[in-house]
Design brief:
homodimer, mainly alpha, 65% helix, 0% strand, elongated, DNA-binding
Chain lengths: 208, 208
Amino acid sequence: MARKPLLKARKTASQERSRATVDALVEATARILVKEGFDKASTNRIAEVAGVSVGSLYQYFPSKEALVAAVVDRHQQEITETVRGELAKVSAMPIDEAVRQLVAVAVKAHRVDPRLHHVLAEQIPRVGKLENLASFNRENFVLFRDFLENHRDELRVDDLELASFICVTSIEAFTHNAVLHHSRMLSNEKMEALIDEGTRLVAGYLKG
Amino acid sequence: MARKPLLKARKTASQERSRATVDALVEATARILVKEGFDKASTNRIAEVAGVSVGSLYQYFPSKEALVAAVVDRHQQEITETVRGELAKVSAMPIDEAVRQLVAVAVKAHRVDPRLHHVLAEQIPRVGKLENLASFNRENFVLFRDFLENHRDELRVDDLELASFICVTSIEAFTHNAVLHHSRMLSNEKMEALIDEGTRLVAGYLKG
DNA sequence: CTATAATATGAGCGATAATTCGTATTTTGT
DNA sequence: ACAAAATACGAATTATCGCTCATATTATAG
């Protein structure tokens, strides 16, 4: 590796041209991660695929890590866009229906870009800035906790914190594994069955 | 990196001395992973910490990957040792008690070497031979499925495959996350509460 | 039109790390 | 005791990779 970086603060793209460059770089990173794997995602290769020079890359991203982080952010935002709104209605629903909706949304979220999700979850070493990569579900956790609070009297759980932890963790786990490790499951019937059973698991628990 | 490997098949340690070398290498790898992180685990450093030469390292391990795989295997075996036997008794128990035992064992397994488990789960890019690293729970899955089969008539689930998948995945997820990401949870009371609630979640689901 | 700022370029530096291989030491069988 | 086999050694090789910087091109403002 090279000596200590001298270029510290990167420029913020202000012209149209440079915004396109930034986009191309993030997009190229995502493409390489998916099609060639984390190993092959060198800064030189990323620049090449993006159709720009390495120099340009370092104009906007201080490190390779920052690029990957940008990909994570973008992916996270796409998921959030998918989920947001679908969750607003949930508060008004009866528990069973609400839970079913939540599980269904979790599946939907994992299907936004499964291959990228897979790479981000399995191949990226969570070191440095990427340590916090498990915060995938921070927002989900808060939303779910609020949901429980709104229905406190209908539920047979006293520790809402603990209940949220168990529910969110479980939903995340079985949807994640179903979508990413058992692609044969992806037939629509199987997926419906998964949602049914996942709903039973969580709703049953909450209602005591 | 160097040119194509010429040394293909590594020797199998036959003398006492070499077995000690192999052990030292695996142990050193584990120590470095835990104390310095995956990045610092270079083959030269591993050899140094093990107190042997890099040359010796390559006598027994064809690649760095193989070394990490050996660490994974060793860890897996320690866990299996912990779990095996505790599960034999389970078949004879009533569902609630059995499930509680299963959840408790999952927690215990995660506590065998939490720091190593953490590194293996979070910092190792699952590429090449390590792709299969998620098979952590293959055996668990089979054991659980058998358990369900033995209690088929007492349960309100028809698809045992799906039920096993959901239960094992969920148990693994909330025990893993509790032990590795919420160390403040480790107070024994909190841990008991986790086991209580986890048991309710799973047992409730199975009994309909 | 021209000066100045923004953006783009890419050869190459410096560092690191995986792996090899010729040689030295130790163990084993006889 | 001696030869052969096993084991150990570690400097050197080689590939790769992150990153910089001197220079060129393009856009913007006055």
